[in-house]
Amino acid sequence: MPLSMVRPGQRVRIAEIRGGRGLIGKFTHMGFYPGVEIEVISNRPGPLIVSRGGVKLGLGYGMANRILVSLIP
Predict the structure, then answer these.
(1) What are the φ and ψ backbone dihedral angles of 8, each rounded to 5 degrees?
(2) How far apart are alpha carbons 41 and 66 in whole angstroms?
(3) pLDDT of 46 above 90
(4) Distances in Å between the alpha carbon of 56 and those of 27, 38, 42, 51?
C-alpha cells in the first residue's frame, strides 16, 4: 500500500520506492530504503510526516504515493 494511506501512529516497513535514481538516492541518503521501519507521525492535509530513529521527514502527497509499505502488526 502507498505510504500516503497509512494512519498516524502506525508503524510500517518500506517495501519499495518507485522513482528514478535521483529520488531513490535522496531517500537512501537520508536512511529511508526498503526494509527500514518507520512510523507515520502526521497524515493530514499538508505534508505527511514520518519518523525513523529520531529523524523526522516531511513528504508531499506525490512522494508519499511513490513509497510502498507493509504494515507491522
Answers:
(1) -60, 140
(2) 18
(3) no
(4) 12, 10, 11, 4
Provide the whole-model pTM.
Answer: 0.88
Residue type at 16 in one-letter notation: E
Which residue do the cell numbers 526494509 mark?
A: 35
Q: In whole angstroms, what is the distance from residue 64 CA to residue 50 CA? A: 10
Q: Which amino acid is at 65?
A: N
**Which DSSP string corresponds to 5-67?**
GPPTT-EEEEEEE-S-HHHHHHHHHTT--TT-EEEEEE-SSS-EEEEETTEEEEE-HHHHHTE
H or E stretch including 1?
Answer: none
> Which one is the CATH code of 3-71: 2.30.30.90, 1.10.287.130, 3.10.490.10, 3.10.580.10?
2.30.30.90
